[in-house]
Amino acid sequence: MVLAEQAVALEAVRKVVLEPAHRVGPEPGLKAVLEVVPKVAVQRVVHANHDSANPPQTKEATMKLELLEDLYAQEIAALMDGERQTIEITPRIIEAIATDETRQALEQHLEITREQARRLEEILGRRGSAGFNNKSQAMAGLLADTQEILNQGIEDPALLEAALVLAAQKVEALEIACYSSAMEFARQLGFNQDFHLLEKTLHEEEKMANDLTGIAASLAFEAAEDEIVSAKA
User: Fold this and answer.
1) 152 inside domain
2) Do the Cβ atoms of 116 and 201 come closer than 8 Å?
3) Is pTM beyond 0.70 here?
4) What is the span of the domain harbouring residue 116?
5) Would you give the DSSP letter of residue 54?
6) In a domain, 103, yes or no
7) CA 119 to CA 191: how far, in whole Å?
8) CA 123 to chain centre
9) Are the C-beta atoms of residues 116 and 204 closer than 8 Å to each other?
């Protein structure tokens, strides 16, 4: 694809991503893409519009980003890497938490995260991209901050928990943004099975984000009360 064609295709993708992400079925957005994307890209997008019973052979570990389908596979692989990173560090976070409510919420979400990773493996396999790796630098950065909190040796259990909950909220915000985009790409490409798996995960992440917000509010209230008592003493 020449540079001019790439510019047209990217502009089409930009317009599609700005559409609402929670609609399933034929949409004007996909039609608009097919009207402006060059013919060579149209052939590949239309071909990708049907979930194949016989997916293509596994792609190499590197991928040249040319089409929306490539961007989609890249994002799914990055989500997979992010989930693996989260699974690795979460037990250390749980061990550092003193409050039962927070520990239980994180333990439950850890099990959910393992299932989410399995769904991503299923999607990558269906797309013929099982061997494609894409490190999530964004997740690595957030979890490096989390590890730094764990390494600081914060003595106040409530303060440590508040810091870790805040770090977890940042992770959820990233995941919600990434799953929302991946879900929209799946919808536009006609990958309905993928869409529903990603939608399920998105709802789980949104619930966890809400749970963490409630926990953070409770921790902040308790901390404020403690400071008031200390000030009066």
Assistant:
1) yes
2) yes
3) no
4) 67-232
5) S
6) yes
7) 14
8) 14
9) yes
Phi then psi for residue 52, to 5 deg, are -90, 135
**Domain count for the chain:** 1
Provide the CATH number for the domain around residue 226: 1.20.1260.10
Closest to 113 (Cα-Cα) out of 138, 135, 87:
87
AA identity, residue 91 = P
Amino acid in position 225: E
Q: Flag whether 182 is in a domain.
A: yes
More confident residue, 33 or 184: 184
Read off the pLDDT of residues 90-143 as tens digits, 9 standing for 90 and up.
999 999 999 999 999 999 999 999 999 999 999 999 988 766 778 999 999 999
Compute CA 214 distance to the chain's CA centroid, rounded to the nearest angstrom: 21
34 in any annotated domain: no
Computed from CA positions of residues 158, 206, 186, 18, in that sequence, does the dihedral angle turn out positive or negative? negative
Q: Give the Cα separation of 46 and 44 in Å (integer).
A: 6
> CA 39, CA 78: separation in Å to the nearest integer?
29
What is the Cα–Cα distance from 165 to 93, expressed in whole angstroms?
9
Residue with the two structure tokens 């400071």 = 227
Residue 72 CB-density burial (10 A; 0-12 exposed, 13-18 middle, 19+ buried): buried
State the Cα–Cα distance between residues 139 and 150, nearest whole angstrom: 17
